[in-house]
Amino acid sequence: VYSSTSKDGGESEAATVGKCILDQISKLGLKNRGVVPSYDRSVGKFVGRELPILTKTKNMSLIIESGFMSNKIDIGNIDVDLDGFNEQIGISILFGYMEARKLLTG
Questions:
Q1: How far apart are CA 2 and CA 35, in angstroms?
Q2: Cβ-contact 30, 14 below 8 angstroms
Q3: For 19, phi and psi rounded to 5 degrees?
Q4: Which pick of 57, 93, 97, 106 has the fewest CB atoms within 10 Å?
Q5: Is 61 left (phi over 0), alpha (psi -120 to 50) or beta?
Q6: Which pTM does this prediction carry?
Q7: How far apart are CA 35 and CA 57, in angstroms?
């Protein structure tokens, strides 16, 4: 999961949402690679992988990678979706988002 920092350089709401989503996706057996900041809003520079979409949005944004085209197992899960893997990913994202909203709104 990639996100940007908050304007003061700290953890953003997107990072909090990303962590909650990642916790849910990890329950499916996918490797947890963490939430990686890509852009530091406090200095206006990329600090990781350059993902301009994270700098062009006014609202919270993040990028979720749920598989890799270079991984044969991931391709099998995504391409021939006989066991509902894609739906499970979608539901995990929803549950993670709902959990994050509870944390952020109290």
A1: 6
A2: no
A3: -65, -45
A4: 106
A5: beta
A6: 0.77
A7: 18
Q: Where are the alpha helices (DSSP H) in the chain?
A: 13-26, 53-56, 72-79, 85-105
- Report which of 71, 54, 50 is spatially closest to residue 6, judged by C-alpha positions: 54
Which of 38, 47, 28, 39 lies closest to 1, judged by CA?
A: 38
Confidence of residue 77 (pLDDT cuts 50, 70, 90): low
Residue among 104, 103, 100 at smallest CA distance from 20: 100
**How many angstroms separate the CA atoms of 90 and 100, rounded?**
15
Q: Which residues contact 77 (CB under 8 A, 6 or more apart)?
A: 67, 85
DSSP 9-39: SS--HHHHHHHHHHHHHHTTT------EEEE
Mean pLDDT across 38-54? 81
**Mean pLDDT value across residues 46-55:** 80
Q: What whole-number distance in Å separates Cα of residue 72 and Cα of residue 65?
A: 15
